[in-house]
Specification:
By secondary structure, the chain is an alpha/beta fold. It contains 11 helices and 12 strands. The strands form 3 sheets. It has a 7-stranded mixed β-sheet with strand order 2-8-7-6-5-3-4, with helices on both faces. The protein has a 3-stranded antiparallel β-sheet with strand order 9-10-12. The chain has a two-stranded parallel sheet with strand order 1-11. The longest helix has 25 residues. The structure holds pyridoxal-5'-phosphate.
């Protein structure tokens, strides 16, 4: 049998494993930060209508510039963040992972480096590797915040071309305040003009305002967003960024022609028509997230403050054994490899109750 390493693949890919959370068939799946609520039926109907319309034109390529969709995304951002943004400052792709890939193809690449503060979203490092961009793992404190002075030292020492700031951070839930982002942005510009990417995949779940306003007058600062989490549309694959229009022009240099299918554009537009209903689910999930934090602490767990739709909890002597213990009780959470900690996605109230019961049993079994 031919193995991957027998093929003439790039050296930096040899011996590596692909990204992927184990997907197991269990009653309660709280491991991938998906929205637990299926799309409401009126929206499903609207998607069917818009896709039917789009289907009539599938003999043609889609709108390469996704003008209607970007206009509606800009309107959504303007309305929800209070920061005025237009079509020219928004770009969309197949998931924010593709947005990040396009940014790294444009601003990273061979001979260049990207830096992130870990533990954080592992795809930042993986997409860097996939685009030939060197990866630098920057530090977080013991409570998973970013220490500004330590971070500035790291930036000055490595002079990265791209800096990732994930806020709220996956897998810890930690939000980053605007002052910290500004300090890191300024340090990155002083070291060498570099692109600062603020990944706000969980922005809608945060107690804090969006960092979008910071892009004003800062052409090297980008905010990336997604419809995978707050919009409950992980299956749609729609991510987007907001930035200076020059950044949108720059990613045109690497994006594949017609990368965003007519069906995707039609579906995303239908979802945006139902924003208010979907943001209602976000409010329910925020309340459930806060309940998880409170109840886990009452049970005796340590919990990292969360601004996202998930909660990092611990601390376990053996996090993987605890993960297995919960799985044995029918609850799948995520072991992100942060020693001592696990991550649970806020689900429906019933799913969260099942999860909390399982944790209680586990703690009792471990004599806590
Ligand atoms: C889930 C997630 C994304 C979303 O990726 P999509 O490709 O839009 O589904 C991006 N960044 C972070 C930090 C995430 O957790």
């Amino acid at each position: 049998m031919t193995r991957i390493d027998d093929l003439p693949i790039r050296d930096e890919l040899r011996g590596k494993t692909p990204y992927g959370a184990p997907q197991l068939d269990v009653p309660v799946r709280l491991n991938t930060n998906e929205n637990p609520y299926p799309l409401p039926e009126p929206l499903v109907e609207r998607i069917a209508e818009r896709v039917r319309e789009a289907a009539r034109g599938l003999n043609r390529y889609p709108d390469r510039d996704a003008v209607e969709l970007r206009t509606q995304l800009a309107a959504y951002l303007t309305r929800t963040t209070g920061h005025r943004i237009g079509l020219a400052g928004v770009w969309a792709a197949n998931g924010s992972n593709e947005v990040i890939q396009q940014l790294l193809q444009t601003f990273g690449g061979p001979g260049r480096t990207a830096l992130g503060f870990e533990p954080s979203y592992s795809m930042h490092a993986l997409i860097s590797r996939g685009t030939g961009t060197g990866w630098i793992s920057g530090p977080r404190t013991a409570d998973f915040t970013i220490d500004v002075e330590a971070a500035k030292d790291e930036i000055a020492a490595h002079r990265p071309d791209v800096v990732f700031i994930c806020s709220p951070n996956n897998p810890t839930g930690t939000a980053v305040d605007a002052q910290t982002v500004l300090a890191l942005h300024d340090a990155a510009q002083a070291a060498k003009p570099s692109l600062v990417v603020v990944d706000e995949a969980y922005g809608e779940f945060s107690h804090r305002p969006s960092l979008l306003a910071l892009i004003e007058g800062r052409p090297n600062l980008v905010v990336s967003r997604t419809m995978s989490k707050a919009f409950g549309a992980a299956g749609l694959r729609l991510g987007y960024l907001a930035a200076d229009p020059a950044v949108v022009d720059a990613v045109q240099l690497v994006r594949l022609p017609y990368h965003l299918s007519s069906v995707t554009q039609a579906t995303a537009l239908a979802a945006l028509e139902h924003t208010d209903t979907l943001l209602g689910y976000v409010e329910q999930l925020k309340a459930e997230r806060d309940r998880l934090v409170t109840e886990l602490r009452a049970i005796g767990c340590e919990v990292t403050d969360s601004d996202a739709n998930f909660v990092q909890f611990g601390r376990f002597e053996d996090a993987h054994a605890a993960w297995q213990g919960l799985l044995d009780r029918g609850v799948l959470v995520r072991d992100n490899g942060v020693p001592g900690w696990l991550r649970v996605t806020a689900g429906t109230p019933a799913e969260n109750d099942a999860f909390l019961d399982a944790v209680r049993e586990l703690m009792k079994e471990n004599g806590k």
